[in-house]
Write a structure and sequence with these properties.
By secondary structure, the chain is α/β, with parallel strands linked by helices. The protein has helices at 8-23, 30-39, 106-116, 160-168, 201-219, 251-262, 301-308, 330-341, 345-352, 357-377; strands at residues 59-72, 81-91, 100-102, 127-132, 143-149, 172-177, 184-185, 191-192, 239-249, 268-272, 288-292, 314-319, 395-397.
């Protein structure tokens, strides 16, 4: 399949693949899932799991229901404004007896699976390391902040490995569902599904800029939740609006670059295999790092053009054997599922590449953290970004 930057086909493929995954306790192409369902000797469905973060702090999380009153919703029609669901992830003070957040909410997951044509067992979805409503760990210093943008047809939990890793090391991370491009469940039970009206990188970037406004509100002690839902103890006033980074995958990577070009509040950006389309012709003077796989400078003129526009600190790395789905939670969910379904190594590699899944997880945990530590905290992280590292021999630095 040819991957395109707006990925309508890819989004559908991902939904069907992961729908098969959760319906039978695995992730596989839809046809393979049906065959494996008939042949499987597994005793029953198995819940998928995510790796635990490596940082010193437990992780807390809370959802936010947001409305951007400055932007009409061009999909819904007149009189309605852009409505979003977001999540805040942060280092927690204590998490005992607090429930762990699901990878997707039940209503969104139910719609996700219905779209893929499978019966639902929500219990099969993985739990995250984030404990809902946990009090924020406060140390006298405000938390550096990172905002995250998912890819087309994806959802705000799709890079939870990276998000909870950053939170476990002392960052506040705000994630957002880009409504009408994903399955979004609102507090009143409504579930909005991907529609026929395309959402473009500029729409994603506008959502991120609104998140930046919410960061400033939280830092000033204002609750942005439109329902007035109580926030975890210590969250108001905990964020540092002077230390903000952003990252995104695929179309979200493009949106990260567009956000930085439009808004100087973002001091550093990470694009994870972003196509950088439409072509970006403006110069960017702040640090930007690319983790590429399919949308490389060699293969994509738009990515090559964007690289020439980076006037500040810049870095392009690529892991041997990585493909588009290698950088994200798929890297660990699909191999788990494949073992349950009896998929061959080749079938699994067709979805996530030949990069070893355990190594893919470690790369996702190490390199984004090193990047944001360097540019938001001025920490060197053992010079991981200076050049090739013996601990990560598969990671190549593209000059």
């Amino acid at each position: 399949m040819t991957i395109t930057p707006f990925m309508n086909r890819e989004g559908m493929t991902r939904r069907r693949m992961l729908g098969a995954a959760l319906a039978v306790g695995a992730a596989a192409p839809i046809g393979a899932a049906h065959r494996a369902w008939a042949a499987s000797t597994a005793p029953g469905p198995v819940q998928l799991t995510l790796p635990v973060p490596t940082g010193p702090y437990p992780v807390g999380t809370v959802p936010l229901h947001l409305v951007d009153a400055s932007r009409p919703d061009r999909v819904v029609g007149p009189g309605r404004h852009r409505e979003l669901m977001a999540g805040v992830w942060y280092p927690a003070r204590e998490v005992e007896d607090l429930p762990r957040a699901p990878w997707m909410t039940e209503g969104a997951l139910r719609a996700f699976l219905a779209d893929a044509g499978f019966a639902l067992d929500p219990a099969l979805g993985p739990l995250t390391a984030g404990h809902v409503g946990a009090p924020v760990r406060r140390t006298g210093h405000r938390l550096p902040v990172i905002v995250y943008s998912h890819g087309s047809g994806s959802h705000r939990g799709d890079h939870t490995i990276m998000v909870q890793e950053l939170a476990s090391h002392g960052y506040a991370v705000l994630t957002v569902d880009h409504t009408h491009d994903t399955f979004t469940e609102f507090p009143d039970g409504r579930v909005v599904t991907p529609g026929d009206v395309p959402m473009f990188p500029r729409d994603f970037a506008a959502d991120l800029r609104f998140l930046l406004d919410c960061v400033e509100g939280l830092a000033a002690g204002r609750n942005p939740d439109v329902d007035g839902k109580p926030l975890p103890q210590g969250l108001l006033g905990a964020l540092d609006p002077r230390r903000i980074g952003a990252f995104g995958w695929s179309k979200g990577g493009t949106a990260t670059a567009l956000t930085m070009l439009a808004d100087r509040r973002v001091r550093a950006g990470l694009g994870i295999d972003g196509p950088m389309q439409p072509t970006i012709t403006a110069d960017l003077d702040r640090p930007f790092m690319m983790m590429t796989a399919v949308f490389t400078r060699a293969a994509m003129p738009d990515v090559a053009e964007f690289w020439t526009r980076l006037r500040g600190w810049r870095l392009d790395i690529q892991a041997d054997g990585a493909i588009h789905n290698s950088y994200g939670d798929n890297a660990t969910l699909i191999p788990q599922a494949g073992r349950i379904l009896g998929m061959t190594d080749q079938q699994i590699q067709d979805w996530i590449g030949t990069l070893d899944p355990a190594r893919a997880v470690r790369i996702q945990q190490a390199y984004p953290l090193a990047f944001f530590d360097l540019h938001l905290r001025h920490r060197g992280q053992g010079h991981l970004l200076d050049g090739p590292c013996p601990a990560f021999p598969e990671v190549k630095f593209i000059p």
